[in-house]
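Thread title: Can someone regenerate the structure for this chain?

I was given the following input by a collaborator and told the matching structure tokens would be attached. They weren't. Posting the sequence so someone can regenerate them.
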Amino acid sequence: MRARWLLVLVCGACGSEAVTPKVASPPTITNAPTNAAPNAPTNAAAKPPTAVPQTPSPDYANTGEFELNKTFAPRLLEIAKQYTKWMRVDERPNVAPLLCRAPLPSDRGTPSQVRISKATASKSPHGRKLYFLYAKHKHTYLKLTATSNNAVPVGQAIVKQAWHAVPATKPAASPNARPSFHYLPPPIRIAKDKRGRLLTTGKQADLYIIYKLAKSTPGTDDGYVYGTVTADGKTVTSAGRVKRCMGCHDNAPHERLFGLKR
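Best answer:
Regenerated them for you:
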């Protein structure tokens, strides 16, 4: 009888151990964001927003050194497109002969002579360059002489077409020696520097432009706007009150223009 009670107690202990439920521990939260995507790592660093690249306008270029007032850029591009139709300031067209006579020497025009900039390369963008000069109102510009005091009309525009100087191998031919008779004699592209070296036009450089508005126009130098445009006439690289231009033209004898140095 004693053995039977011992067996019951042992079996009862085993049954109670088998039915006791185990409670699972709660999950540990490691500062996961409340709006995190499913299966996303909870401790991953947030990625910075992707920067959107800024594409510059094709008509303008930020050089950093020069002022670029975009208010005046459209007019500069317009001048760059038109200036070659104005004629160079120092050229004169041929005169057509009358009565079917042969051309006389006096009928021949005057070719434009390329000029050497006197500016120092370290102080001016014109330094060590050759150039031709164009004026919208040519005859008005030619009246700006050392003894004149003529006013510059609003709307006047001057373009300095610059060229890189390279050594020339031979002197320029006389324009009267050409057998053909053009409306405009071809320009002379060879010049002699102070040391007697012959230079000629190499690759075309930028266009340097100055034009006049009303004196009270905001953002101008007493009405004058300075600007530079690339050689292809498509990109404005400076516009407005360009300091390096003003530093020279503020001392000009005819408002902001020098006139043609003969």
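The beta strands are 115-116, 129-135, 157-167, 190-192, 198-212, 224-229, 236-240.
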